[in-house]
Amino acid sequence: MKFKKWLNKVTKIFVVLGMVLSMCFTAGNTNTVEAWDSGIPHEFTRVKSITYPEWWKRKCPQITKQWSTYMCKYNGQWSYCLEASKRTPSSGNYAASVIQNNVMVRKFLYYGFGGPNGSLFKGQALTDDGLNEAETGYLYTHVLLSLAYSGDMCGANIDDLERAGIGLKSTWSYVESLPDPSNGANFSTGDNATFKATFDKSNMIQSTNSIKFNASSNETVQLPLQSNVTIHIDGTNAQQTGGTATVYGGQTFHLTAPLENSPSDYTSGTLNSSAKGKFCALAISDGNGSNQTHGSWTQESVDSLRYSVDWLDFGWIDLIKKSANEDITNNNGCYSLEGAVYGIYSDGVQVDTITTDKNGYAKSSILPVGNYTVKEITASTGYDLDENTYNVTIVKDQTVRANSNETPGNDPIGIEIVKNDAETLGMPQGDATLEGAEFTIKYYDGYYTKDDLPKKATRTWVVKTINRKNKYVARITDSNSFIKEKSDELFYDEAGAPVLPLGTISIEETKAPTGYLLKGNTLNVTDTASGETTTEKDTNYVAQITKEYQGAKLQFGNDANQMVVTEKVKKQKIQIFKSGYRNGMSEVVKGLQGAEFTFKLKSEVDHVGWDNATTYDVITTGEDGWAITKDLPYGEYLVRETVTPKDFYTNPDFTVSITQDTSEIKKDEDKVKKVILNNRPVETQLKLVKQDEETGKTVSLNSASFKIVADEDILDGGNIVYKKGQYITQKVGGKKYDTFTTNSDNVVVVKTEYTNDDDEKGEVFLPLQFFAGKYHLEEVKVPTGFIGLGKTQSFEMSGLLDYTKDEDGDPIYTVTVRDEQPKAQIKLNKTVADLDTDVDLVDRSDLSKIQFVLKAKENIYSPVDGSLMFAKDDVITTENSGAIVNAGTEVGNGVYALSTDGHLDISNLPMGVGEAQYYLQEVKTLDGCVLDTTKYDAVFKQSDYTTKTYIKSFDVENKTTDFEFNKTDVTGDKEVDGAQLTITDEDGNVVDQWTSTDKVHSIEGLVVGKTYTLSETVTAKDYVKATDIKFTVKNSSELETVTMKDKQVSFTKTDVTGEKEVEGAEITVTDKETGKVVDKWTSGKDSHFINGLEEGRTYILSETVSPEEYVKSTDIEFTVSKEKVNEKVNMKDKQVKVSKLTVGGEEVTGAHMQIIDEDGNVVDEWYSEGKSHIANGLEEGKTYTLLEDLSPLGFNLANDFTFEVTKEKENQTVEMIDTVTEVNKTDVDGKAVKEATLSIVSEKTKDIVDQWVTGQHILDIDKDIKSQLEENGKAEGTYMDDEDSMVMFSIAKNKDRDDYTLMQVKDGVTTYANIDIKGNETTHRVQGLVAGEKYILRETKTPEEYVQAKEIEFTAGEDENQTLVMKDKQVTISKATVSGNEVTGALMQIIDQDGNVVDEWISEGKVHYSTGLVEGKKYTLHEDLAPTGLNLANDIEFEVSYEKENQQVEMIDTINEVSKVDEKGNSLKGAEMTVTSNKTKNIIDKWISGQHIFDVTDEMKAQLKENGKAEGTYMDEEDSTVQYSIAKNKGKDDYTVMFVKDGITTYTNIDLDGNETRHMIQGLEAGEEYVLKETKTPNGYATFKTQTFTAEEGKDTVLSMTDEDTKIEISKQDITTKKELEGAKLKVTDKDGKVIDEWTSGKQPHMIKNLTAGETYTLTEVIAPKNYKVAESIQFTVKDTGVAQKVVMYDELLPVAKKVKTGDDTRINYYVVIAVLSLIAFSLLFIRKKSHE
Fold first, then answer.
1. Contact at 8 Å (CB) between 1441 and 1527?
2. What pTM was computed for the model?
3. Distance CA 32, CA 48 (A)
4. How far is CA 1725 from CA 951, 1629, 1648, in A?
5. What does the pLDDT look like over 178-209, one tens digit per residue?
6. 1690 and 1626 Cβ atoms separated by less than 8 Å
7. pLDDT value of position 870
8. What is the spatial distance between Cα 439 and Cα 518, in angstroms, rounded to a whole number?
9. Half-sphere exposure of 585 (CA within 13 A, CB side)
10. Helices 133-149 and 103-111 meet at what angle, rounded to 10?
11. CB 3.0-4.6 Å disulfide test: which of 256, 381, 848, 1659 passes with 336?
């Protein structure tokens, strides 16, 4: 016992240390956070005390005491002890700190009883242990919190509880898996989740950044999504498009949306979220370390969560590539629109690439709206790379065009064919000319070689060579060289300049120039890069025009595209035969030798004179008079006899012509040309001819007058006729003439002038023949239109052979005089105006695009012959006029382009005769400039005969087109802001784009004559998109204004009266044709201007969401007229009222109503509020079902019915009736029965539709409420319930009844109940019934002491209210002893037929009212555990009848007592006893006889003496409270004591010393056979034999067990005589040498009793009788028997004594041993004595 007490004290010390350590540990779990102020105390309140089930301690002995606690609250929330072993703090105000690092504490506070979630122990109630659901939940939560915080479970651990059947371990594991509730709720970006979309080009979608929802994983937030927005939960495949998405705490998510029809930017309202604010666990301390730390919680306010998305808008760019010159590219296989690659750039970064198809079309992938540039990267086949950059602005969901008119690759025609003489490699020979050689150029629209040229060329051109500065060239661009009448149309570039497209050309000389052979021509092309020369003879040259670098290149091998053609001149020899007259002789000498002849070209002699002319050959006649020349080139030669044989006349000069090549003459005799000469003196007729210097034509219009002067003495027969320097006169008709005037159309003859009308015009024949000699002419009168007055010209008259002859055969010498004409020159300087506009489209960098036509203002006549050179308005070309372009270029047909800097200079224009009137007129100007139609007159008149050039200059400015664009409303007065306007040209190219403001938009430089379209690409807010306006730019610089007016279509949403504006309707307007939504809005107080409309289109106006309390209207179709008049659209909404009524016609509060459409969708849902409800979400013309989804608690659910919403604009009303079913629960006498749990089960679904506990307390009715009821019969108000929720109530007296109807509204749920004046429920109003449905009323839990009643079947009333009555009977159980006393402490059970325990209790010395019985069922009354000391009774079967009468069942407990005594009948202590079941072989009971039970105090003895009974409590060694009761046993000397500790009752018999007397066997069952056995006998006693007995049923049994003494009879005998020997000193020692007994033998054997059975002892003879030897010691074992056991020790006589010798030590060892043994024995006696002290 002392050791046990010491162990208990040590254990307690360790427990205290553990508690201190746990406090130290848990102190580390607390921290202060900002959300909770740990310095502010809050109220802590003890609410009520609860005791845990007694069987916990009984079945889990590790629990050190009976567990109990207080239910407490802190700051309005439930609070729990966190250290179970300590005392609960007293009520007061205490501060609390946050438990920061203990997740399990937070979880149990959150999910456990009283927490925000509170779901952990719902529906659990230890009712059999007297604990309701709330108390049970609090108990479990407290236990687990104490474990989580401090590990303190009153000595037990969770495994101990699990083994005892207190299953909380699985709950612990479950809660471990739940999310930590501490986080609160927000997004990773704060309360507002801010999303920004980016363009995910790889997936062609727009995707936002990811954001995390920071909350517990069981918490959610609801995100309303736009219809085409998809939410993605990162790390999963979960996604949802549109609707409302649920995101759980801890999830990270992002949004995506399509590129096309991308959603608008979005900002949500406040999001619905189950998450609350941050949840904090609190540790509450009163500052006293011996008291418990309490745990409670607080939760921060709910966060306001929102989200916003910044979406991108998208559109497309498309492009149409067109040839800028389709005349070149059409049907030309060298060009293709397919394959052009364009880059699309944003901020200089390439974002897309597009490639054109065969039609030149390309479209981008979808791109974000914004500004882009488009630039060609790779040109398609045949085209030049477009160096331009196109700016494009993408508009949402539209395709914006960027057209490209591309220049086809071409070779600006620079073909130059140089015609050379084959011998001179340059200038022509003789009179042959290199002018006029014709070349045929053929173009083929493909790539060919000489071998595969098509038969037919695409186009053919013919050019001829002309002399350009002594270079004979043919150019296709030169109008003088280009033979138009033999040629097809040229190809021209965009500027009007002739070009060669890609393809193939062939060049062939088809006509040789005069004097040259066509056959044998050689074409040489030299590559300047390599120096190689390609030669082609007598054939055509073929070359390809291919794409190379920019433009194209004709592959002639050099940049000039120049070809050199050499050709052989025609040649022939001339043979002269000379004969002649000698002076003074008349005969002819033939074959004159020594005559020398010189050959010069006549044309050259005429031009430069004989002396300066080139000598082609000199020949001298031989003896035979013949001389022959070398091959002379083609031409007319003047042959002069430069050496005449002596005495012969010199032959006059003669001409001879070479016109054929020797190779062309077939006859050999003709291959040399022969001339026969016979000289004689002659006179010659002189003819003067006036010609135009430029053309060589004879001037026939006006006369020229000449005088002739002799340059030497003129002889006739040796006589001087005229002296040198003398004017020649001729006398005709008696008149002398020294001036000779050419005949003309306008001849004016002075008397002194000779003219002859018979002469050819422009000529004059002198009337008399001239003598040979040298002369010169003086031009004394110049023809009008010419210059050259005073001009002189020498000539020489000689004898001529082959001269032209007149009709008389006389030779005629012709002198041709050529005069120049004066020329006109026109200069023009062009500038372009620059206006101050918003946009300037004019490109002023190159004015060469401006072109003028030059025409004759009036007829211009030739001064040569008076012929019409240019008729009025004829174009003046360089070809037809000989004009020279000094600045600018001629582009063809009299059209001249300015130079780049804007100059035009045309000279060498004919002056004509009289007045030459020209005018310049602009025929082409810069794009964006006004074509100047002014005719700039240039009038030229000759003022003298010496001025060569007359100049006329003009300074001209071009005006630009000037436009202003207005964007106004229909009044035209108000500028409309915010419209995006676009101007496109005829090809769809965007010319300009802007957003309208309050100012007009001005543009300079729209192209004259082109038609543009003004489009409203983005409509201004609240306006209709206007119809496109097409306008054509006039050729005017006047300001033109284009006004686009926007109309408005307003929408009003009204009720059926048309007078009240209805707010909150969601309206969409859809394009009927495309189905695209163009506008959507929510109606407000004012009318709405519809956006996105276009004139002329038809739309559907739809109410997608009707406002609350209004019916959704049918769609309205309307067409926006093109008239510039504002329009209005009105939509009326009707209302449908729904009334929810009682049978009495009163409006019901709290019914959950739904209206369901034909597809099963809930369109409206509400709780009735005691008044009619105006329905939401209905649509006209549709049929709906009115459904009561949840009736108010206390009303039956009404049946559904359908109704139709008409299209008539009249309000409608719909009614639905709720009935009431009441249940009254009473006993058999009609008295109300409380705490019965009743349920209503649907016969159809088998589901429980209602369940309640009868008589429960509903409401605390205080004095104020009672006074209201007494005064008004009604009371109303609000109160705060235990969950700190606001509850609204209304109480009204029930008519003709003693109770009241209570209506309560909490958290939107309405409950009706009948209560009495104390606030307890009377009859129960059944919840959740559906009218007309069948149900079963069941008693699912009967109140204690009542039997479960039979179920009642019923049908819920459809039209009338109904009341059901269910009565409960009682069954009492009596547990008594044989003597009829009620037993305390028996654990009783009632078991149903399925073996289930339906009632269990511990008898308390009185009858028990059974619980859980059901009428009509059979049960077994079972004693599960008899009080210690009473036998377990046999089961009793009984049946509960249906009769409404109470029943009683009785069970008797018997007693089996065992007395343990010695042979004298005295109680024997220390015997260990067992009782074993013969049936199970298990030990049923074991005890030690005579053990001390407890200390009977003097006070107790006094009570016993006075009353025969003593009762009270005391604290045992385990600090447990023990209740006791002591009573005197009738007819006995002892007492019966009953103990109750930790719910366990024990009976036993004791004496006044508190020691057990008769033992009351525990755990026997009546009728069973048992074995009573003494397992350990007290020392000195023999074990009693085993005893078998049967526990009698209904009869007590008394057993007595007597233990006999063990007996050892020791005899000391002579070994011989076997007679007792006296005088021997003997002793008996135990195994440890301890002397048990010692004596001296006498006449009788010695008896020793009460030696321990089974032990071995030693009998020792200490001193032998005289004359006897000491016998050897004898060992003996005590047998377990009460029969005497004999032990005999024999002694032998000593032999006869001998004399002892000195030094004899034969017995010394014996004495030493005796001495040692004596010392040991003394020591043992000393120690024993000390121990007893």
1. no
2. 0.40
3. 30
4. 171, 13, 20
5. 888 776 788 888 889 999 999 888 888 999 99
6. no
7. 92
8. 11
9. 12
10. 170
11. 381
